[in-house]
Amino acid sequence: MTTVATTRDELLAIGDDALVAAQRLAQWCSRAPEMEEDVALANIALDQLGVARLVLSMVDNEDTLAFQRDDREFRNCLLVELPNEDFAVTIAKLLFLSAFQLHRYVALSTGHGQLADIAAKARKESAYHVDHATLWTIRLGDGTQESHRRMQDAVDELWPYTHELFVGNDLRATWLSTVEPALATATLQRPADGWAPSGGRAGLHTEHLSYLLAEMQVLHRAHPGARW
Amino acid sequence: MVSPRAAAAAVVDPEIRVLTIEELGVLRDVSVDPASGRVIVTITPTYSGCPAMDVIRSDVEHAVRAAGHPDVVVETALRPAWSTDMISESGKAKLAAAGIAPPGPVLLQLAPRCPHCGSPDTEQLSRFGSTACKALWRCRACTQPFDHIKAL
After folding, report:
1. Which residues from A are below 8 Å from B when comparing CB atoms?
2. B108 or B97: whose pLDDT is higher?
3. ipTM of predicted assembly, 2 dp
4. What's the gap between Cα B32 and its chain centre?
């Protein structure tokens, strides 16, 4: 049984994962490899943003939290802040993140209260995200030599960052039961466990988060309290 | 005078304008506080990030006020989570008539029939479509693309 998150830091971890993932995914808008994928990634970003707003609103004013915190005050995992780079990197990231979010929301939804209600809704959306990422992982991994190489590179590059997702919870075994079959079907090697960078949950981030926040917050910081 | 319930129920979904929010299953409850006369309307989002919620909230307030009930608040409930099973039968019929393939039961995921020619020979182009709640499909028989409300 996973502990139901109640502390401010635990709520921020859930909300910030979704918020930063939404911002990264939205950067694909008008740049995805095909129009349908453009729409898909924007929709997934919107789902993430919706959950972020609901969860952050449990902590404080959502706009204050999103637009007026510095990087050290964010509690998202490092995985979501890493740059988009290759499309395969975005897909690997989405597979790892959405499989984690699905199991986290399922665990949270068995509880009571506002967070459980949010999770009960979000888990259904996450299931679609996992499906979407899995389909692409298989298509690229089991595709051409070139797409296989790039998908494997992406999985290898991001795998170390998945360990941080399971700090303070026992969801890794369940997560592996979703991710490993997807990688196997995609004819991809499941990387060995080793280096496990972390720090995001304590506010120690990569430099990439600062650039992401600069873009996300610039308007609000230039015009505090502006409305339209 | 139009009742608060009737006024709220007649509000049209801003993204799928052939449906009312009642038919879509977004309208949860309308109650009137007997002491103050305040109307409390409860709605639920289809998707967590549904951008139409702010517009729906505002449209409901306007509609209830215009019906002669000036004191109205709109509240949001998340549980039970919205499901496409909450779309009424009349709502599904209106979707089909508007060229949007309605969802089947959540536990029975069959390919939707083409809303234009009725053929069951359809294929999914993308799981995500023009709004959060839709997927993009194409009919192999008449070759027309169409929106499908995906089962959730």
Report:
1. 36-37, 39-40, 42-44, 46-51, 53-54, 114, 116-118, 120-122, 124-125, 128, 131-132
2. B97
3. 0.84
4. 24
Q: Which residues are paired to B139 by β-bridges?
A: B122
3-state secondary structure B34-90: CCCCCEEEEECCCCCCCCCHHHHHHHHHHHHHHCCCCCEEEEECCCCCCCHHHCCHH
Q: Quick check: B47 and A50 CB within 8 A?
A: yes
Subunit contact B79:A117, Cβ cutoff 8 A: yes
Cβ A179 vs Cβ A163: under 8 Å: no
**Contact assignment for A39 to B130 by CB distance below 8 Å:** yes
pTM for the structure as a whole: 0.91
Which residue in A131, A126, A96 sits closest to A108, CA to CA? A126
User: Which residues fall within 8 angstroms of residue A61, CB to CB, at 6 or more apart?
Assistant: none
Residues of chain A in contact with residue B42, where contact means CB-CB under 8 angstroms, are: none
Scanning B112-131 for CB atoms below 8 A from A yields 125-130
CB contact under 8 A, A43 and B45: no
Identify the residue whose tokens are 């992406």: A154
Using CA atoms of B44, B48, B49, B53 in order, give the dihedral in degrees to the nearest 10: 10
What would the pLDDT profile of B15-40 be if each residue is shown by its tens digit?
Answer: 999 999 999 999 999 999 999 999 99
Mutation pick from A25, A38, A39, A117 vs chain B, by most beta carbons of B within 10 Å, is: A39
Low-confidence ranges of chain A (pLDDT < 70): 1-5
The CA–CA distances, whole Å, from A119 to A54, A59, A79, A106 equal: 10, 16, 21, 7
Q: What is the identity of the amino acid at B134?
A: K
